[in-house]
Amino acid sequence: MATDNANADGFGEVSRVRGIAFEYLSLGASVFGLVALGVLLVYVAIDAFDLSNASPEWLLTYFVTLVVPFLAFCLYSADDPAVTRRALGALGGGLVAVAVVFTAIESLLVPIPRLNWQLAYLFVVAAPVAAYLTYVGSNGRPGAVGFGLLGRLVGGAALGLAVGTLFLVFDSLVWFLAYTLGVLPAVGLYAYGRVREASRARTAALPVGFLGLVAAVVLRDVIPTYPSDLLIYLWTIAVPIAVAGGLVVADRRGRTVAAVAAGLPLAVATAGGFWATGAGLPAPTVLLVLVTTGVPTAVYVSRVVDVGEGVVGLALPFLIAGGVVVGALVVEAWGVPAPDPWLDAGFVTEAPSRTPANAGLYPAIVGSVIIIALVAVLSFLLGVGTSVFLEEYTPGTGPIGTLTRILQVNIANLAAVPSVVYGLLGLGLFANLLGLGIGTAVTAALTLSLLILPITIISAQEAIRSVPDDLRRGSDAMGATRWQTTKNVVLPEAMPGILTGTILALGRAIGETAPLIMIGAATTVFNPPSSLFSRFSAMPMQIYTWAGFPQADFRYGVVAAGVITLLIILVGMNGTAILLRNRAERGS
Amino acid sequence: MSNTTSDDSLITTEVQADSNDDRAPVNEAGTAVAARDLNVYYGDEQAINDVTMEIPEKRVTALIGPSGCGKSTFLRTINRMNDMIDICRVEGDVEFGGKNVYDADVDPVALRRKIGMVFQKPNPFPKSIRDNVAYGLKIQGFDGDVDARVEESLKGAALWDEVKDQLHSSGLELSGGQQQRLCIARAIAPDPEVILMDEPTSALDPVAASKIEDLIDDLAEEYTVIIVTHNMQQAARISDRTAVFLTGGELVEYDDTAKIFEDPEQQRVEDYITGKFG
Amino acid sequence: MTDSTESPDLSRQSGLTRLKEGTYGGLFAACAAITLLTTAAIFVTLLSDAVVFFRATPIPEFLTGTNWSPNPAGGGQAFGIVPLLIGTITVTVTAAFISLPIGTLTAIYLSEYATPNARSILKPLLEILAGVPTVVYGYFALVYITPALKATLFPEMSTFNALSASIMVGIMTIPMVSSISEDAMSAVPDELRQAGYGLGATKFEVSTGIVVPASISGIASSYILAVSRAIGETMIVVVAMGAQARMPAVREAAFGIPFINPADVLLESGMTITVAMVQITGGDLTGGTLPYNSMFALGLALFVVTLVMNVISDIIAERYREEY
């Protein structure tokens, strides 16, 4: 407490030393975990990309050809002298500081393993500055355009790969029939009904679609010949995506532009597909990736050109690609030693192997994608259904109110059940009792869906609760039934929040390992799963397996590459979720 | 009084009722809504105390009274919006077109499709202007020409000229007064028989409020309008009949507007009207 | 408009509409019922196999046995949970030494010291700690933490050890402590703080002397949740702690007082309840064997313990909510 030394000259002073020490202690505690995680991530990145073998010249080359142009682009977009001064000051001052401090520690205290001051500079100074500038730059018009384009390219490619992966498990011939007989007529009827205000056509859409699906399953083995996979994907996926993109453009810019924006990527994708057949690449995947990247990109470019602001930003992907190419040429010409990263194209496209150099993650990635796709559908439907029931369909009082409270407590408790116990549930119930099979994809998907269901429900409830009651009352007063109010007013408003919560929960599911072990997922498989009932492995399973290998190359190289792959996918998912949330918040 | 609009402060001046001479005398109109021995409770608290009144067809009826007097509750009893509140209990009859809306065979959803409602705060849906107006038609499975009806309703709400070029932009982009008129257009689009208005101008500026008042006058050509208001001048200006509720949910006096404002029977009503209490 | 004399049709809607409404309501209720069914299914699944296990291994023997070897090479199967409890308690307590103080300090910083800007950046960043897959944490512990500790502090440490695993479990559970505690601290009414300042208290004295005691039940409930999470943590310990169910050596100090050297537990390999379950899956998974059943007995124990802790934490948290 205050020392009572007030005298005639004033009130004296109360010592703040303890308080200040405490403030810094608590600040230190707040960042302790983050710093620890950061250091570990730096090391795992160094291992995965073999950066400890990167020569300073190699680092310098890419720093100049790739990092500097990128930072310059961000600074140009931010267009703020203060930011430029700050960034240059941090980069320059950081260079001196890191070099001095690092050398001092190495020579006076202990040598720091597998790290040199150049790498330390890269991770401690350059990476945070780049992240900060990316954030600042994306607020400027050219930056927003550049990152928007980049996001569509990367996101489109990821989507194309994921869809291609799903067809490893799902029968593309059934899909072909289902699309032709069910989906297409149903969508056509619905669209006709919308345009002509013919409610009968709209009502008919659902039964027609359903009949088509049934017919597809029945006819699958009856029809003797089918078009090639490439044509099926072209007809069922590429053309609809292009048409949808074209319609979006046509809304704003007229038919000619729309035809170009949709037709060009479609033509490129088709050509790419046929070229890939000749080149020995998986043609359907090439087609899908080209379409899912090409169409959104074309739509986006047409919009940017239309708006006419920040068109320069469209150069960002070229800037980055150019930087990589130039860097590679310089390194080649200069002859400086380059690192040999564990995480390379071979790692994500090849099967596991006994020799570290050949080991790949491909079957595990496919397994993860398939499981997550199933979990996404299941947990989204169950999560939305439950949260709608709890928020919109139950009164707060009476016997049903009591039931609601019980459900709520039960959901909170389920969220706290250890994941390994869910694994036992999956093993005992789905795998053995229901006979879905030990270690199959469908058992895993069901188990993980139940595991993340509480998280999905709780976040969906929050999203639904944030819809203003005014809107509900407005809809009720119009004579809307409960379902009509839910469907027309509540769900559209809550959807971004629900999707954000679901994606975050899926991020939890994709990294879960213990339940997979319990249901007997394979530790290593050499081929991707071919059906929902085949044995599979998943990324975290494979990481777990490799971490147990005694060879240093596995422990420090292959596993690190696997960890980085998993984390990149996680960051991508969470980034999408955050973008969705931000966009929804800006919209309302 | 909590929600005072600018012209509300002139309480002490004598309020002149506009007699709405353009319409036939009230006693020639039929009855649209009637309450008989109506009591409403929230839990143990009584919100409406034994109210009996008949509301004439195609006229504007104003419900006035101090905060918490039960006038909004009464309004919400008519289209059974109080059903949404768990602890709310209704005794007695509310007749709409001769039918007690609290009868067991009445579906509140069907009832609300025949009665439009406009709220205190404009609450357009986060959809396009067109979709807002078409909302009631959509949920009722309207089979006619939606766009024609949307135009008609927007004209009816005196909004058409302002928004006809931006029907596909969001309803939330409109100003407060426009939003409220959009809500009125939304309410009249399915062609209800009665429109309930719960202090429709209290969240608006005076200019926007006066536009809504003019609109209400026009609406009475075709619809029965029941309006709750805090603003006595407003009641005097736009209504044909006025009901005065005082604390405890008691209907103290119900008569022609001119009578209420010029020569009320009860001293309590006169005190309230002249601002001596409330 | 209908004439006032004929009453409007207010009767219930057509059968089709009502059927549609009812179907949707039923579907949503069914979704909600699945959450209840999940709890029931967990209970039944665990219990049915656990009962078989306990018929073969009496509960007292299970609870007091000091030997855990479900699949021995040369016979002598034994199911004693004590070594597993020692492993679990070691990890939980050590992790708590990290997560509880750091989490509490973090909560105090976020709630009392941080600017709104700093809080809006720090809070989501801290959640990342709980979002990293646990197998990745386990890998970190095995290949980075253990060698680092071995090179600096504990040269005699074994490759698989409880300490590295516990450190990682502790870091992972920091956000659990900090976010719930921070909520509790932010809920402390500002008047209490003002009262403290009015008496001439410094910020430090207000934070530690007023805010922390006022939010103590929220803090306690966060502690229980974090500990319960640590008890159920699997992958970190599986990867980094190894799988040796051991009883630590009991040493004798001066005057013959028995004690256990913490180093014997912390720096050596060990086995937790969760690791034991994972280890059994290496064998038979189709059921019908005693090791298979024992897995469910362990799962039941884990489920009951975490459930009870969660309920206690709920009750404590409920109490503090009523206070203001």
Automatic annotation (TrEMBL), chain A:
Stretches assigned to coiled coil: none
Residue spans crossing the bilayer: 24-46, 58-76, 88-112, 118-137, 149-167, 173-192, 204-224, 230-250, 257-277, 283-302, 314-334, 361-390, 411-430, 436-458, 556-580
GO BP term, pick one: phosphate ion transmembrane transport
Top-rank lineage group of the source organism: Archaea
ABC transmembrane type-1 domain mapped to chain residues: 365-577
Any GO CC annotation of this UniProt entry: plasma membrane
Gene Ontology MF annotations: phosphate transmembrane transporter activity
Compartment(s): Cell membrane
PROSITE patterns cross-referenced by the UniProt entry: ABC_TM1
Bilayer disposition of the protein: Multi-pass membrane protein
Keywords: Cell membrane, Membrane, Transmembrane, Transmembrane helix, Transport
Family to which this protein belongs: Belongs to the binding-protein-dependent transport system permease family. CysTW subfamily.
Name the UniProt record assigns to this protein: Phosphate transport system permease protein PstA
TrEMBL record, chain B:
Pfam families on file: ABC_tran (PF00005)
Biased composition (Polar residues): 1-18
GO molecular function: ATP binding; ATP hydrolysis activity; phosphate transmembrane transporter activity
Domain of life assignment: Archaea
UniProt keyword annotations, A-Z: ATP-binding, Cell membrane, Membrane, Nucleotide-binding, Transport
Gene Ontology biological-process entries: phosphate ion transmembrane transport
Signal peptide: none
Region feature (Disordered): 1-25
GO cellular component, one term: membrane
Keyword Flavoprotein: no
Domain ABC transporter: 33-273
UniProt cross-references to NCBIfam families, sorted A to Z: 3a0107s01c2
Protein's name according to its UniProt entry: Phosphate ABC transporter ATP-binding protein
UniProtKB/TrEMBL annotation, chain C:
GO biological process: phosphate ion transport
Membrane topology listed for this record: Multi-pass membrane protein
Domain of life: Archaea
Keywords: Cell membrane, Membrane, Phosphate transport, Transmembrane, Transmembrane helix, Transport
InterPro entries documented for this protein: MetI-like, MetI-like_sf, Phosphate_PstC
Molecular-function annotations in GO: phosphate transmembrane transporter activity
Principal subcellular localisation of the protein: membrane
Localization of this protein: Cell membrane; Membrane
GO cellular component: plasma membrane
Gene3D superfamilies (alphabetical): MetI-like
Residue spans crossing the bilayer: 24-47, 84-108, 128-147, 159-180, 295-317
Domain ABC transmembrane type-1: 85-313
Family according to the record: Belongs to the binding-protein-dependent transport system permease family. CysTW subfamily.
Function: Part of the binding-protein-dependent transport system for phosphate; probably responsible for the translocation of the substrate across the membrane.
PANTHER family registered for this protein in UniProt: PHOSPHATE TRANSPORT SYSTEM PERMEASE, PHOSPHATE TRANSPORT SYSTEM PERMEASE PROTEIN
Stated name of the protein: Phosphate transport system permease protein
